[in-house]
C-alpha cells in the first residue's frame, strides 16, 4: 500500500470514531481502579503499514506447515502418548484465547488512553486469530491421527468434564469481575507475561522432541504476538501506578492473579511436559528447570522485582511458595497422578509410566520413586480389564481428594488444605491463598474499601458435585465420552486399541456410585468436619492415607 493510500485509509478510519454527546455512556464492565485522562495519540498508521502484512505472512507459514505435515507423514512418526494429551490441551486452550479477545473491549471504557485502545483492539484480533489456528490444529489432528476419539467432542467438555471445568474457570477469569483485575492484571500482567513462556515456548520444544512439529509452528506463531500484549499490560500497569489509590488493588490483584495462574497453568503444562513425553534424555530440562528459567528468572527477577522502585509490594512469598510446590511438594506429580486416577472420567488415553520413565524422574526429582513409583506400577497392573475395577476403586493406598472451590484443582498437597464456612456451606481450598481469594479478595469490600466490581466465585464449581450419587456408566454416557460402537469408552488407561483390552460401559456399571467429597463433608457435623480436616492434612504424599499412629 502506498503512503498516499495509507493516509487516505487512516483518515477514513478516524471518521468512524467519535465521543458521543447525546447520552451518558453506560459502564457495563466497571472497575474500582481510577485513571487520569491521557493525552490522545494514534499509532494506527503504523498498524496499517506493518501489522496486517506481518500476520498474513505468519498465517501462510502456519497453514503451509500443516500441509507439509500431512504430506510428510508426520502422524506416522509422532508419539501416541504425546498426542493423547493434546486432546485435553487443545480442547482447553482455544477458550482462554476467545476469552482474552472478549476481555479487550472491557478495557476500552475504563482505560482513558486512545493509544492503548488501538493496542487492545489489535490484541483482540490477535486472540481471535490464535483460537482459529489452534482449533484448526485440533481438527487436523482429529482427521489424521490414528485415534480421533476425544478430539471430536472436546468442545462440550467445559461444562461437565473432570478436567475441562478447571480450564473453564481459568479462562472465564479474563472476562468476569473488575475489568482491570480480569483483563489487565490477571491476563496481560501475569498470564501472558509470565506463564506463556512455559505454555508457548517450553511446551512446543517438548512437542518437537516427540515428533510433533505442527504444534511448535502454531504456538511459536502465537507467542510472537505476546510481546504486544505484554506491552498493553505494562502500559496499563504504569497508568494505574500513577494514582496512589490503586496501589492497594494492584497488590491484591497480583496475589490473586499469580496464584491462580500457578495452580492451573503449572498443573496442566507441567503434566503435559513431564508425563506426556517419551523423550527421556538426561540432558533435557525438567519442568522444574524450565519453570526456574522461564518464570522465576525471566519474569519474577527481570519484570516483577523492578516494579518495587515504584513502591509496589511484590508477592515474593507466593513466588517462593510456587517454586516450593513444584520442587519440594511434588505439585505436578500429584496432578498427573490425579488425572490418571480419574482416567475413566476423561476423553483421552493416559499411558502408564515405564522403567525408562521411572529412571528419568528419579534422576530429575530425587526421591520420586519412593513417593510415586509404586502407584504407577499399580496403574500399569490395573490398566486392562481383568475382573477388577478401575484404579480409583482399588486398594492402592490412594485417598480421593476434595476439590478446591477457588482454582478447582483438587487439594493434592494434602498438608496445605484449608476449610472455611462461606455463604452457609463448608468449602475446601487447596491452599490458604485460594481461601483468601474467595473469602477476602472476591468480596464487596476489601480491607475496608468498597470494591463493588470485584465479582464472586459462584455456581456449581466442583465436578464431583455435578454427578454425586450417579452410576459411573451414566456419568460417562452423559459426558458423551463413548466411542461409535455405543459401549467402548473414549478414555483408556493405556494406548492399546485392541477391543478386548478396552474398558466399556458394562465395566463401569458394576462400579460403586460416584461420591463427591465436598457433598459428604457438608453432611458432617462440626466435630466430623474437624476430624476430617485433621486426617486429610496428614495424608500424602501421592494421596496416601494418613499414618494410623501419627
Which features would summarize this protein structure in a list?
550 residues, mainly alpha, Ribonucleotide Reductase, subunit A, two-stranded antiparallel sheet, 20 helices, 4 strands, 55% helix, globular, RNR-like, Ferritin-like_SF, monooxygenase activity
CATH architecture: Orthogonal Bundle
Order of helices and strands: HHHHHHHHHHHHHHEEHEEHHHHH
Please give the count of helices: 20
CATH class: Mainly Alpha
**Helix percentage:** 55-70%
The count of DSSP E runs of length 2 or more, i.e. the number of strands, is: 4
Principal-axes geometry comes out as globular
Q: CATH topology, anyone?
A: Ribonucleotide Reductase, subunit A
Determine the N-to-C terminus distance: 75 Å
Radius of gyration: 24 Å
Uncertain residue segments: none
| Beta-strand content estimate | under 5%
Overall tally of structural domains: 1
What does this 3D model show about the protein?
This protein has 550 residues and is an all-alpha fold. The protein is built from 20 helices and 4 strands. It has a two-stranded antiparallel sheet with strand order 1-2. It has a two-stranded antiparallel sheet with strand order 3-4. The chain has helices spanning 3-14, 44-71, 80-92, 94-108, 114-144, 164-172, 179-209, 214-241, 247-275, 287-304, 316-327, 331-341, 355-364, 368-381, 432-441, 463-466, 472-479, 505-509, 517-522, 526-536; strands spanning 418-422, 425-429, 445-446, 449-450. Strand 1 and strand 2 (425-429) form a beta hairpin. The N and C termini lie far apart (75 Å). The mean pLDDT is 91. The chain is globular. 55% of the residues lie in helices and 3% in strands. It has one domain (50-463): Ribonucleotide Reductase, subunit A. Its EC number is 1.14.13.227. It is an enzyme of class 1 (oxidoreductase). It catalyses: propane + NADH + O2 + H(+) = propan-2-ol + NAD(+) + H2O. GO terms for molecular function: monooxygenase activity. InterPro entries: Ferritin-like_SF, Phenol_Hydrox, RNR-like.
